[in-house]
Amino acid sequence: MKYRFLNIARQLALMLLVIWTVVSLVTLLIEVVPGDPATVILGETATQEQIENFRAKHGLDRPAFFFSYGGEKGFVWNGSDNRYADYWLGLLQGDLGTSFRTDRPVRDMIFERYPSTIKLAIAAMLVAIGIALPLGVLAGSRKNSIIDNLASFFALLGISLPTFVIGPFLVYLFAVQLGWFSPTGSLYPEDIVLPAVTLGAALSAILTRMIRSSVIEELGEDYVRTARAKGVSERKVLFKHVLKNGLIPVVTILGLQLGVLLAGAIITEKIFNWQGLGLLLLEDGIGKRDYRLVQGCVLVISVTYIIANSLTDFVYRKLDPRIRLS
Amino acid sequence: MSRLAYIGIAIAVLFILAAIFAPFVATHDVAAQDLAMRYFPPSAEHWFGTDGLGRDVFSRVVFGARISLEVGITVVVISAIFGTFIGSIAGFYGGFVDKFLSGYVFNVFLAFPGLLLAIALVAFLGAGQGKLIAALCVIGWVGYARVMRGQVLKVREYDYVMAARALGASNLRILFTHILPNAIQPLIVQASLGMAGAVLSEASLSFLGLGIPPPAPSWGTMIEEARQFFATSPHILLFPGIAIALTVLAFNFIGDGLREYLDPKQRRR
Questions:
Q1: Residue A68 pairs with which residues in a beta bridge?
Q2: Do A306 and B249 touch (CB under 8 A)?
Q3: Interface with chain B: mutation pick from A118, A154, A203, A298, highest number of B CBs within 10 Å
Q4: Residue B264 pLDDT
């Protein structure tokens, strides 16, 4: 018991350490922007006064870090009055800074858009599971049959076709030709279908392969032979015994993929003009060089990913006693 | 090796040859615009049709192979060398060094999902082929480092390593002449899969407008430009799309085939 708590504490400490590093990296990345962000944003025509006002407002006139090194002065200690400390202080109060472009709090801009990205990611995951579970089980339980070969072919397509080829193709087929959905935007509730299928395609392919090999592996185990010898029906063997064990690795992949979906949503959101976090990062952040907004978006996406991964790891340990013991 | 791996090698060789001999394979000048010939479907003159500026799509796809493979190979080589180096250090020295590298540094680089770190780097550094390669190496090396660490951890316990140590071989000599050659196989698999990943990442970033800026004929950029006209001129998007899919598929086939070939446990299945 004591050992288990220690283990959880260690995992938690590592997670916090990683989050701290990620935040630090993202905070300091703004220093590698070529040139002065103030001139980049205000343009070449801005007066000296405008630039100084902008720099003062966003703290760009203050030192970047606790110390600086280089130039004629060499090593300089800047003390605690620096931008890195500012960002952390703000962050601890739930403040991600003020947008360089709109003067609005970055936190508000992000949380306006975040729900639609999460909605899209979850819908994509449901699509992926809905396709992969039946297909993978069928393919695995009828190894080398026509269904198995078809499933393998479909999985290969899903893995190798990039999102930005699948997306326009689906739009053409289902929106332009058949007229079932709107080509872009999220006006009607059913408009989530095409983006979700596009985003979930690659995951459904990976999952199909995993479930297939998982089912094949479990079907060769001794307990399956025992169950069959006892006269348990094949259907019961498959769904009660094999799936229960075979789905454990799949759960891990699902958890790890949730974060990948959040990041992958950037491309899908661009294709469908889906007003989520990815589009905010791409158009308002990178497109308009609103570096504060870029920082916030990258931070929120990666921290979600880290937390999702750690939770998955935790659930995985709970599910599979073999890992818990070792 | 499996049949699929041979198909993969055949496709990869085809694309590599097309990339090397691009000036001879291409039927037109990649940059030549002909506004009278916009959005023409495939024909005998323009095998893959023409794009929105009247440029020959076939020639652009051929030169696109050059960009894709150039970026892919550079990224794989740089990240493989760096990753192998860091991974060997972690595996060979173990202890605190390993705890710091594999427990902390690897996890930091794995903490960014998919392309996000590359997108963030390009967002701050600006677009361009060199920066794109740098960004993809930053996200790519961890994969090699993890594989290498695991291999070195396994191989260094073998008897012949102990024998070499008993003979008085230095750490560097043991690492380079005894451990590395025996740990290299999974690395080749990783490089092949990494090539597929790098080609896809380059196309994705270029599609997002964060990769190689136009008018360079990157497949991702071509797809982004063709997207709006898909309903009327699907060929402009389809051909670079097929090129990406085939390249990614080929390197995935090779990687999977090699893995099965090198792992006798999987070969029996």
A1: A76
A2: no
A3: A298
A4: 61
